[in-house]
Design goal:
alpha/beta, 5 strands, Rossmann fold, 3 helices
Length: 127
């Protein structure tokens, strides 16, 4: 099975799940993340870059939202590049709290997206 994990801090809370999948030696595990030095042999890692923040121009109450939207855009751009290379995940797993999963249904339509907070398929009204 082809798994795509998304989390800004690879491997995040998915360490044990990723290790379990790799131990089965029958899954393709890809991870989209912000650059860090963490390594799990067997995981294909693809980084994304969040544009720099201009906090002075952002209302203090909207800073987290702005960062989440920036992450969503950066992850979707990276996902489109991955798709162009022929990767089609059968399941997408991530933590929706960082905003990264927000635009992935624009790249790969549901029901592939799953979040770890509610363990349900992510649904957007326009998907």
């Amino acid at each position: 099975m082809r798994f795509l994990f998304v989390h800004q801090n690879f491997p995040g809370q998915f360490l044990h799940l990723v290790r379990h999948l790799l131990a089965a030696q029958k899954h393709d595990v890809v991870f989209i993340y912000e650059p860090n030095q963490n390594v799990i042999p067997g995981v294909r890692k693809i980084t994304y870059q969040v544009p720099p923040r201009h906090e002075a121009a952002i209302h203090p109450d909207a800073r987290d939202l702005e960062q989440a939207v920036a992450r969503a855009g950066a992850v979707a751009k990276t996902a489109r590049q991955l798709k162009a290379l022929g990767f089609e995940p059968e399941i997408i797993i991530g933590h929706h709290g960082w905003g990264e999963l927000l635009n992935l249904c624009d790249v790969w339509p549901p029901p592939r997206c799953s979040d770890t907070m509610s363990s349900t398929t992510t649904k957007r009204p326009d998907c």
